[in-house]
Amino acid sequence: MAYLALVGMALFAVYFAKERLYADAGYFLVRVVDEEGFHVINQRWIMPLIQWLPLVGVKAGFSLEGITVLYSLGNIVLSAGAYLYVSRVLRDRPHGLLLLATQFVGLAQALFCPVFELYYGAVLLITLRSLLHSDIRHTRSGQVMACLLFALVATCHFLGLLVLLLALTLDRIWHDRSNFIAFGSVLVVLMAQRIIGLSNYEDRAFQTVFLRLEEAGIGWVFAPGRLWAHAAQALWHYPDAILITLFAMLTAWRKKAWWPLLVFVVGHLVIYTVVSLYFPDGTHDRYRETLDYAHVLFALVAAGWAAQESHVWRKWAPYLFALVLVLRVIWSFHVGHTFAERREWIEERIANAREQRITKGLDTAVRQFVPPGFNNAPLYAPAPFEYLLLSAMQGPEKTVVLVSVPPGAQVDIQTLDAELQREGVMLPERLNGRYFHMQVGPFTVVP
């Protein structure tokens, strides 16, 4: 089952390597390739785990297309390494299977932006939970490894920290005094550093939650209409995560394990409340999946508890996850056709710009691509990094940078470079870089 999962995910990653430059993914690859080093933002120190493989390709002089494939395989390589550690060193095959499941359960559109830090934090969280239930948890090396994993998960994303604390609450970590004190000390240091160096992005996120809580109140997220809409969306898009959660809760009920059952219920309520206050829109898209992924991860933590407590669960879980894997791969390939059509359209716009001898332009052409499924939002307009990467794959001298703007939008082409930098769109600047040859001068409108 584990190797079937790895092979299936690897085939997907290679087949859709170019499509997986969607949204933030293209930005981070451009930064790694252009700077030839790691690019860490918002103190999320897990990012080198996302970026080391394409960076090796850059240092080795691979083509940009080859680097893109390595980039796409990053989460698969990390998952494979963690699986071997958990299943061979810790001898915990159920958790080995669960950490692989973090890369396909509940995911479809989000697979095309495989740089969300929590996907990597999820692998490490399941690894940490396995370590804390192993025989080496009180050894010197085990405690160092546990603290390192704790720190990486805690800093990967706020939702990662939330699920981490819920998982430790589930296991009553305070009974393990040495690790409890160690984790508490690490958390204090990390949070102090985080608060001092809070980025504008994170500050806006917290302000959004507190402002909505102050104006609407917590009861707003539990309004019957809102609950119904989110339930319909969840049933359509996350039946696998819901089924896993129900099985784990049923196991707890049958064993009269009231503490785990309470933590499962309260944990999902807390996640739902925080996510709804921050992003109440139920329309489904890549970003919705990244936020809802906290529910998915906590469902897998619950499955880990059930595997430890129930022989029946250990026996049947591989078959359940095999079924989920097959269905998710089929559905992801189906969704991927829309992303492939979008990528082909971007390449057509690049070819059109080249025919006009434009290498730095404003593209006012608009085309909506709506993935299959319930209540889906159209895919995002192409980012400049996607144009940049897809054009430069044909050679650095073929580099084209386009900025998508809605028809009729008022844009000052003379100051657009400065405006992009203020918005965090940091494009390469070297005229004769190893992978990108950038052009100087103002942008030109593409006919």
Q: How does the major sheet shape up?
A: 3 strands, parallel
Rg = 23 Å
The number of E-state strands comes to 3
Residue share in helix: 55-70%
Helix/strand-derived category reads mainly alpha
Task: Outline the structure in words.
Helix content is 65%, strand content 2%. The longest helix is centred in the last third of the chain and has 45 residues. A three-stranded parallel β-sheet has the order 2-1-3. The radius of gyration is 23 Å and the shape is globular. The chain is mainly α. Helix 5 packs parallel to helix 7, helix 6 packs antiparallel against helix 15 and helix 14 packs antiparallel against helix 15.
Short account of what is shown:
With 447 residues, the chain is mainly alpha-helical. It has helices spanning 2-15, 24-35, 47-59, 64-72, 74-89, 93-101, 117-132, 140-156, 158-170, 177-196, 200-216, 224-237, 239-254, 258-278, 286-309, 311-355, 384-392, 416-422; strands spanning 360-363, 401-404, 444-446.
